[in-house]
Amino acid sequence: MHRASLITLIDIISFIGFVFLTSTGVLVRYVLPPGSGRWSSVWGLSRHDWGGIHYWIALVFFAVLAVHLVLHWRFIANLFGKHLQAGARLRLALGIVGLLAVLALAAAPVLTPVESSGAGSGAGRHGVRPAQ
Is the predicted pLDDT of residue 7 greater than 70, yes or no? Predict the structure, then answer.
């Protein structure tokens, strides 16, 4: 497959992944809000099921984006080349700082320890233990 055709295919897959990731995110956030899992479903799938689908779409989307970056590596390397002018170096430095800030914010929820509410072990949302 020619490089241009592969890049086009990756771009199409990326767009489709973005659309599905957005739609499942909206579905989980607004159509099936927290607490609706016991009573509501869409196409027979609960909020939890849609959350799992959203997760797997995100993994595939990020894998496709990694392939996209690999295919554009020469372009990216040229951006960071030694031929940068003084003004471009400042923009590059600010861009890197901004990228690191976004990555830190994205990683924060994953790296933050989980807090327990102290309602007791095995207690449900309203402090009631589920029937066994």
Answer: yes
